[in-house]
Design goal:
This protein is mainly beta. The chain is built from no helices and 9 strands. A hairpin with a 4-residue loop joins strand 8 and strand 9. The relative contact order is 0.24.
Length: 109
């Protein structure tokens, strides 16, 4: 598949508000996060300790906390927000089709 391919990963309704759901896309674990009506997709592996963010906690400010060392990432931008994190996460484009399916286009890299 090319980098501009959209991939059907889940039913949008299966991603609860304020929670994180794992999806496996082309050998990568992706964290799907809903913040109200917004859906986001980020790489699910913490850049600090290689822990899965899918076991982390979504905060009301739109950040997700790594369960290993409590570093937080912004789920909208992938930006590392605090120590011990120093590297941002990849953010993937998302869209929901008319049937309510959530599609992801993987970021290059």
């Amino acid at each position: 598949m090319s980098a501009d391919t959209w991939i059907d990963v889940a039913a949008a309704a299966d991603v609860p508000d304020g929670d994180v759901v794992a999806a496996h896309v082309q050998g990568r674990e992706i964290a799907l996060v809903r913040l109200g009506e917004e859906l986001h997709a980020i790489d699910a592996t913490c850049t600090h300790g290689s822990a899965s963010l899918c076991g982390g906690f979504v905060e009301e400010d739109g950040s997700i906390e790594c369960p290993l060392h409590q570093g937080r990432f912004d789920v909208r931008s992938g930006r590392a927000l605090c120590a011990p994190l120093t590297q941002d996460l990849a953010v993937h484009a998302v869209r929901v089709d008319d049937a309510g399916r959530l599609w992801v286009k993987l970021a290059v890299g």
